[in-house]
Specification:
globular, four-stranded antiparallel sheet
Length: 110
Amino acid sequence: MVDQAPQWESTDQLGKTIHYAGTVGVVSALIPAVAVGKISSVLVRNPNRNASAKKLDVAFDGGTTYLRLDPGEFAGWSPKNNASNTPITQIRIIGVVAGVEYEIVVDYEP
């Protein structure tokens, strides 16, 4: 019989992880700017180096409902399909004021 690693030792190596960082102002931006694929998980961070007035709003539904992040806060999510039952391929961010820094790590399905 051939040796085979137990299933519990297998690792998920499919898909890709991409890091996005930059600044956003009072005009919303899509992350990524051009859809790369279906998002399997995402972590959005408002770095604590932002001043207290520099809040970051994040929407997973295309910009209808936003989650507000104060400096130093983050949100992680494993989104499913949207209300129209289509995969989520981009998230929308907007700053409450100009020059809000953000850091985003996205895992994409294969």
